[in-house]
Design goal:
Elements (H helix, E strand, L loop, with lengths): L2 E6 L5 H14 L4 E6 L10 E4 L4 H10 L3 H9 L4 E4 L1 H6 E3 L11 E6 L10 E5 L8 E5 L4 E5 L4 E6 L2 E7 L2 E4 L10 H7 L1 E3 L5 E3 L1
Parallel strand pairs: 1-2, 1-3, 3-4, 4-12, 5-6
Antiparallel strand pairs: 6-9, 7-8, 10-11, 11-12, 13-14
Helix pairs in contact: 1-5
């Protein structure tokens, strides 16, 4: 069966995420079609969702204005996978630490925006990630810090003792930008190795 992946395309690295999810699908022997999401009505037809980075206040406002926000919540409630990266993680969180961001509450974490510094402080680091055999080349650009995780949230990776990747049921969130590398293993981990109700993981 061909899977439909929806990339929320109001901001961020849309084409890079589209390519990454296609590569990850191929690595898991699944064919993937990609749909860009800018208005309501597309999310319900998607098997997988990607919530890219950008500017979190703008993303959250557009998602709610366009009626996409409630569709994403319903997607998660149905147990379908979501990968939320950088500002996408901020929007997915329960607490963004900023009243200007109307979060989706699909990942039970508290985040701090731009906690890793400004654009000039961007860096790449080899990251040990739970579920990956080799380190992942994580790219941090104005990255948020995950300052607190709720009960039942699995920390998949830390950098300098701080969580930078988490899994909360079908939602995987990263502080970094996994799409800015040819390595698509994070997309595979988040979208094709979804966590079941019993806490196990299985291929879609």
């Amino acid at each position: 069966m061909t899977l439909k992946a929806g990339v929320v395309a109001v901001q961020g690295d849309v084409s890079e995420h589209a390519e990454a999810v296609r590569r990850a699908g191929a690595a898991h022997d699944r064919e993937v079609t990609v749909e860009e999401i800018r208005t309501a009505g597309t999310v319900p037809d998607c098997d997988l969702l990607l919530l890219p980075g950008g500017e979190s206040t703008t993303i959250s406002r557009l998602l709610h204005d366009e009626g996409i926000a409630e569709e994403i919540v319903a997607h998660v409630e149905a147990g379908k996978p979501v990968l939320a990266t950088c500002a996408g993680l901020i929007v997915a969180a329960t607490d963004a630490g900023d009243d200007r961001v109307e979060t989706l509450g699909i990942a039970d974490v508290t985040v701090e925006r731009n906690a890793f510094g400004r654009q000039k402080d961007s860096f790449e680091a080899p990251l040990e990630v739970e579920g990956l055999e080799e380190p992942f080349p994580a790219v941090f650009i104005r990255a948020p810090l995950i300052s607190d995780v709720g009960e039942g949230v699995e920390v998949l990776a830390e950098w300098d003792g701080r969580p930078v990747a988490v899994r909360d049921g079908p939602v995987v969130g990263t502080s970094f930008h996994p799409e800015l590398t040819p390595d698509s293993r994070i997309h595979g981990l988040g979208l094709f190795e979804a966590e079941g109700d019993d806490g196990s993981t299985s291929d879609q």
